[in-house]
Specification:
The chain is an alpha/beta fold. The protein has a single domain, classed as Rossmann fold (3-Layer(aba) Sandwich), CATH 3.40.50.300. The chain has ten helices and five strands. The chain has helices at 3-17, 35-44, 52-62, 69-83, 87-100, 114-124, 137-146, 154-167, 171-175, 187-201; strands spanning 24-28, 48-51, 106-109, 128-134, 179-182. Helix 1 crosses helix 6 and helix 3 (52-62) crosses helix 4. The longest helix is centred in the N-terminal third of the chain and has 15 residues, at 3-17.
């Protein structure tokens, strides 16, 4: 294994052996899985939350572009071409470390690439857990088709899935998540499962 992999593994083991609550909760999931629902619940509880996608949205606006999935993809890929595949984590780290100085727990919404995962694990791993929100693909696509903002057809959703898995390594953090919540049923069931997990881990704002 590489030195970086050894460091990450050491931090993961350290976090697993620790009895103290995690200070960083990273949410991961494919589009339509319910990740945003969990993020909004954390927000309602008063948690500090940093959305990786906000970096992209801000850059889209700075360039004077319309906020569309294609423009977000172009900007996201530009940032990764400039800063590497860990771009969002690299750009977010100063903000996350500042937030940890004054808050008990922070939420990271939108950790995408495996490189971002490795960067955060190297820098913050002993304090961080990853929660993956998953559901059946046909359910995700139905949700994406009926959402009020930027709905996607099944073909568009599938294209986005392929782009995210192939171009931004999105599968890695989901596969290596510490905890996985299944969201095939009503939103209330997902929030209930999330609450039970937070209570078990001792996570609080």
């Amino acid at each position: 294994m590489t030195d970086q992999t050894d460091q990450i593994t050491s931090r993961i083991v350290s976090a697993a052996d620790s009895t103290r609550p995690p200070r960083i909760v990273a949410l991961v999931g494919m589009p339509g899985s319910g990740k945003s629902l969990c993020a909004k619940h954390f927000e309602s509880l008063g948690f500090f939350q940093f959305r990786f996608g906000g970096i992209v949205v801000d850059e889209v606006a700075r360039r004077g572009l319309a906020l569309t999935p294609d423009n977000e993809r172009i900007v996201r890929e530009d940032l990764r071409a400039k800063h590497g595949m860990a771009a969002m984590a690299v750009l977010a780290l100063p903000i996350l470390k500042d937030a940890l100085a004054t808050r008990q727990t922070i939420i990271v919404d939108g950790l995408y690439s495996f490189s971002e995962y490795k960067t955060l694990m190297k820098e913050l791993g002993g304090d961080m857990i990853v929660i993956a929100i998953v559901c059946d693909r046909d359910i995700r696509y139905r949700r994406l088709a009926t959402r009020p903002e930027r709905p996607l057809t099944a073909a568009e959703a599938e294209r986005r899935d392929y782009l995210e898995v192939e171009n931004i390594e999105k599968g890695g953090p989901i596969a290596l998540a510490d905890y996985t919540l299944l969201n095939n049923d009503a939103p209330e069931a997902l929030i209930d499962a999330l609450e039970k997990l937070l209570q078990r881990l001792g996570v609080r704002a």
